[in-house]
Design goal:
6-stranded antiparallel sheet, 2 domains, 6 helices, single chain, elongated, about 25% helix, Chorismate lyase
């Protein structure tokens, strides 16, 4: 079988158009601004609409654009930094936390979660659901599993369910001394419930960040956070301020 010299392969037309469009986004449009329709854009750049769609799809995949039904194609906000490997240790819901509690219900966790929590597989835990928003759009959804033994003083009388119950679970966690945490990140596909929470189609690429919180010599809670891969980026260390893009230059966030 012969070999192909990659440098001799011409750049696809849609890829060149993607670069031109990216430069236009930086110089002509603001975050949240709606782009002209496909017909106008195709005429402006002198390309077929099929070529234009390929370029727009690539920019959406890279997080530069967002397509919303009933709204159109808008310029996406900067990616949200997902800190991994940081030395800073805090409980979920601590000061500066961008997550919004939605609900808390008793639930039997998946077997793998029960094993990580070292609870019986048929034992109910507190399941707290939270959402992270930016520029009015959901970028991540979290399921936080908390064993009953981690929050023994929690009372269901004042806050039986809903947001109040979720906040009560988080408050009780603060009573524990956080000894440490470990975190794993993997690429995945949005399940139906994740897709609904994130305003994406099922199967869309996501980043799944699993965090175990340790206190009193055991796993006190486990978080499974699903981030939209098109709007989030990983950061390492405490700063997380450096952002490198392949293609036209953009300002670091």
């Amino acid at each position: 079988m012969g070999t192909t010299q990659l440098e001799s392969v011409p750049e696809p037309k849609y890829w060149h158009l993607k670069t031109v469009l990216s430069e236009a986004l930086d110089s002509e449009f603001a975050v949240g601004e709606i782009l002209p329709n496909e017909r106008e854009l195709a005429a402006r750049f002198g390309v077929a609409r099929a070529t234009l769609r390929q370029a727009l799809e690539q920019l959406e995949l890279e997080g530069r654009l967002q397509r919303r039904r009933g709204v159109g194609t808008t310029v996406a906000p900067p990616r949200v930094g997902v800190a991994v490997g940081t030395e800073q240790r805090t409980w979920p819901g601590a000061s500066g936390d961008d997550w919004q509690p939605r609900d808390s219900v008793p639930a039997v966790p998946p077997a793998t979660v029960a094993d990580a929590l070292e609870t019986a597989r048929d034992e109910e835990v507190h399941l707290v659901s939270r959402t992270r928003m930016t520029h009015g759009q959901p970028v991540a959804a979290e399921l936080l599993y908390v064993p009953r033994g981690s929050v023994p003083a929690l009372s269901g009388i004042d806050a039986p369910s809903g947001t109040a119950r979720a906040r009560a679970v988080l408050r009780e966690l603060y009573r524990l001394r956080l000894d440490g945490e470990d975190r794993a990140v993997e690429l995945g596909s949005a399940r139906a419930d994740d897709a609904k929470a994130l305003d994406r189609l099922p199967g869309a690429p996501v980043l799944v960040v699993t965090t175990r919180f340790f206190a009193e010599g055991r796993t006190a809670a486990l978080s499974v956070a699903t981030y939209r891969a098109d709007t989030c980026r990983l950061t390492f260390g405490d700063g997380g301020g450096v952002e490198i893009h392949h293609g036209p230059e953009r300002q670091a966030s």
